[in-house]
Structure formats: structure tokens, C-alpha cells
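Per reviewer request, we include the raw input and output of the structure prediction for the construct analysed in the revised manuscript.
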Amino acid sequence: MRIWPTILLLAATAAAAQPAAKPAPLEAAESVTVTATPLPHRSAVDEFIYSYPAPVRTTDKIARWKRAICPVVEGLPPRFAAFITGRLKAIARNAGAPVDANPACRHNIEIVFTTRPQALGDDLRKNHRPYLGYFDNLHQADELAKVKHDIQAWYLTGTVGFNGFVRVDNPRADFLTGNNGIEGGQAFYAGSGGRFSNGISSTLYNVIIAADLSKLGDYGMGSLADYIAVLALSQPRNFDACWEVPSITNLLSKDCAPDRKTATLSDNDAAFLYGLYKMGTGNSIFQQRSEIRYFIERHPERK
């Protein structure tokens, strides 16, 4: 997917209208330093595992990136944009997520800093509706397009068949791939795996993240980069939860106790992403959650 002209215009307007949030040292972008936190109780970890990742509606499985990520940042000066993309790629590599090393790669993560995020949502609704995510009717599309958070993400997922072909999870998204929404117009077969896997899995296909510059001035660029990285690499059930485990995902949660918020990626976040990218994508969601817990407990920084 390429950023369309309307988004570029919104981003450029935002960059000119308001300075960016205070940056963290730019040399830290390509290295990952996490905030050490006390080992949370197992029940708190289970709460996060069962409640944070959203199961994809079409498969009832947890999605992660299968194709290499290719992020782009619009609406910030180049050095700050490079810091965020560098930080995102470093966190992805540490978690085991695939990263596209080609500078000319096709963007599949668009991060837009703007003072008019609702204009972006409206443009998606009007001109690029499938990128809002899965919906059954236009009323649901209207609700998806509403910007209700200082940083908000829209997720387009795909179902990966037993033969490896990807079907975009939206009946209106045929133009993205081919016949019947399948890459290359190939035939799609679910196949059969076994007791814990039916041979299909879910993948993140495209992620658009809108960050409201008018409301983020009190946060450092490092904190925003880490928060955005977790959103870009995993699909949360909601953006308002306050988890018991200390987490960067609590950064913007209202009425969340300070001891549950971290200014950078926490070791809990790093362990979760590690588990997410170690789990079997074709397994049942019950098995996936069990595997995430297993790998969280065995994350290298927890040994």
C-alpha cells in the first residue's frame, strides 16, 4: 500500500503547524533498552495474554506479521521519522518479527502524525474503506472511522490458507490482491492440520496508525516510538485498558496508576512480543495463548 495524497497533505500540514514531541537520543533508535519491572503475578500475565490481543474474527486466532514489515512515518521532520522507524524495526527484530531490509519496500505500516486525525479517518472511510478493518455494513465502517484516541490504529488482516495464499479479511477488499481478495487470484484452500491446528492462520496485512500531535506534546519521542511499535506489531482488543502488568501500552490509558505505566518498552512488553512471534500461527487460540505464556516465562531477559 502507498500513502495516498490526502494523508500526505494532512501530515505535511500538521508538521508545519506544530513542533514534534521532544525526541529521545536518536542514536538509541536501533538498540532496544527495556524498562525492568518486578515479575508480575501469573494471574496478571494471564489477564494480559487473554485480554490484550484481539482474536481475528474470521479465524478466531491471534494475528501477527508473516510478511516482512515496511514502516513509514509521515508528518514529522525526517530525523524524527527515522528515529521512530528505526526503533520499530529494532523492537521487531528483537521479538523475531520479519523486517524488510529493502529501502524501496512496499509500505505496510503507515504512521501518520497530524493535528487532524479525524480527517484521516474520514478519508479512509470515504476512499480507502477496507483499510479500516473488518466490517459487516456501512454503519460499522462509520464507527471504525471515528477517532477516539490520541493514538489510534486500524488493522487490515488476512487469512493464510494451508497452501500459503493470503485472503484479505474483508469482502470489499478484492482490489487489494486479486480475484476473491486472494493474492494473485489463486485458489484458496484451508486444508487440515491436526488436533490443535486446522491449517489456516491469521496475519497482519496492513496497519495505519494516527497520532494526534495536538495532544501528545507532554510525551517524549522515545515513549511514543515504543508505544507505536507495540501497536504496529500486535493487534490490541482496545486502546483504553489499564493492565496490571507494567506496560508501555498503559502510557495513554486514563486513570491508570503510575506504577503500571512505563516510559519505554517494559520487559513484560518485550516478553509478550517474543511469545507472540514464537507461537504457532496455525494453532487454536487456546493453544496460542498457552504458547505465549510459555515463551514469556522463558524470555531471554527473564532467565
